[in-house]
Structure formats: C-alpha cells, structure tokens
C-alpha cells in the first residue's frame, strides 16, 4: 500500500482522537450507528459528537471470537473476520478491567519510557509475561477464561493466541535491565494500574515480573 503523507495521513494524539475524527468524517447528523454492546465506551462518543444516533447491538463473548481473530490475521481480505476482530478488541479492553489484569498496562507504560515499542504490542507481551502470576489471585475465574479460549489454563491459551498471531514475542529492549524496568513500573504515574491489578504486586514482585517480561522469546 502506498500513501501520500501530505493528503492521506493524519497524526493524532492517540487512537481515541483518531476514532473521533473518523466518526466525524463519515457521520451526518441523524445517521444511525450500530454499536456492539458491550463495547469500549469511548469509541461511541465520536459518533455522538457528530450527531449520530446510537443503536446498541447485543453481542456475546464466545470462543468464536478467538477463531475470527486468528482468521483476520491469516486472511486479511476476510472483512467479516476483521469486523469480529474489532469486537474482540472491545471485549479485550473490558476483560482487562473485569479480570484485574491492569498490570500489563503498568508494564507497557513503563516500557514507553524506555523504548519505542508500539503500546498495543507492549501490552500484549506484558500480558503474556504476567497472566500466570495474576491468575493465582483468582484461579476459578481464570479457569473460566481458559475454557473460553479452549485451553486448559490461561497461560497456554493466551500464549497460543499471541504466538499464533506472528508478532515478535521477544521485547528486544537492548540494555534495559530488570531493575530499570521495575523502577519505572513503580513510578507514581503507574500506581493506578498497579492498584487496579487483581493481585497487588509488591516491589519484589515488580522485579520478578520485569525479569519475566524481558526474558520473553
């Protein structure tokens, strides 16, 4: 794909602003917009600001979402699978909150201070490095998560999903030590994500979790 940087690329402050800009570009006042329910709440606001009328469409998180996610990656021309992948991302955001796995965001925000790694990739890898540790705080709940993924445990289920996507799993943070990463994880700016984690990580835990993240391969 070739794009004209002067006429076809817009830099935004983040994905939320980008979503809002797209919504305002394609929505006229009174247009009916179908929004999956549940969904990431902020994504509907751009359409509301553009004068759209929101109609919620109930949907359920089932193992089919993991199938369509993988198909969207391996068959990028499958529009239906790509649409289902968008729903999956909504459920993923809700799941991070419901399951108390904000620790992954704690790490990805810390990584952002140290290297130019895309936030989504950093968060996904951080989840891979920490989901087993977090799951110890609610084994029964995460057993249901694993079952929804068609796996015997959340670590193998999520690991299969991440590694099957083809993204580079090794973080590649050359020169970054576990101590350095852990110190950024402990920064006051990251305290809310640390506190929102189901199993609160103490300082010693931060170091071992940083080691697990950097050791991904």
Content-based structural category:
mainly alpha
Query: In angstroms, what is the radius of gyration?
Result: 19 Å
Number of helices: 11
Helicity level: 55-70%
Strand order across the biggest sheet?
1-2
Element-level helix/strand string: HEHEHHHHHHHHH
Unreliable segments of 5+ consecutive residues? none
| Average pLDDT metric | 82
Q: End-to-end span in angstroms?
A: 30 Å
Tell me the number of strands. 2
Q: What's the short version?
A:
With 217 residues, the chain is mainly alpha-helical.
Report on the structure:
The protein has 217 residues and is mainly alpha-helical. The chain has 11 helices and 2 strands, in the order αβαβααααααααα. It has helices spanning 15-26, 45-49, 64-74, 79-98, 103-112, 119-135, 139-148, 154-164, 178-185, 191-195, 203-214; strands at 32-37, 53-58. The chain has a two-stranded parallel ribbon. α2 links the parallel β1 (32-37) and β2. α3 crosses α4 (79-98), α5 packs across α9 (178-185) and α9 (178-185) packs across α11. The longest helix is centred in the middle third of the chain and has 20 residues, at 79-98. The protein is globular, with a radius of gyration of 19 Å. The model has no long low-confidence stretch (mean pLDDT 82).
């Amino acid at each position: 794909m070739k794009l004209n940087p002067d006429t076809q690329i817009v830099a935004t402050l983040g994905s939320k602003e980008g979503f809002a800009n797209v919504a305002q570009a394609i929505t006229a006042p009174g247009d009916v917009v179908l929004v999956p329910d549940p969904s990431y709440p902020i994504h509907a606001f751009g359409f509301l600001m553009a004068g759209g009328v929101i109609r919620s469409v109930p949907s359920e998180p089932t193992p089919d979402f993991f199938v369509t996610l993988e198909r969207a990656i391996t068959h990028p021309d499958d529009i239906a699978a790509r649409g289902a992948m968008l729903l999956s991302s909504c459920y993923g955001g809700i799941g991070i909150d419901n399951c108390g796995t904000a620790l992954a965001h704690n790490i990805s925000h810390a990584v952002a201070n140290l290297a130019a790694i895309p936030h989504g990739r950093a968060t996904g890898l951080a989840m891979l490095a920490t989901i087993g540790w977090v799951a110890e705080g609610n084994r029964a709940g995460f057993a249901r998560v694993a079952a929804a993924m068609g796996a015997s445990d959340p670590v193998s289920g999520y690991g299969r999903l991440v590694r099957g996507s083809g993204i580079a799993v090794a973080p590649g943070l050359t020169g970054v030590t576990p101590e350095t990463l852990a110190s950024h994880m402990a920064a006051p700016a990251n305290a809310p994500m640390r506190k929102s984690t189901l199993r609160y990580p103490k300082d010693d835990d931060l170091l071992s979790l940083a080691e697990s993240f950097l050791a991904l391969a």
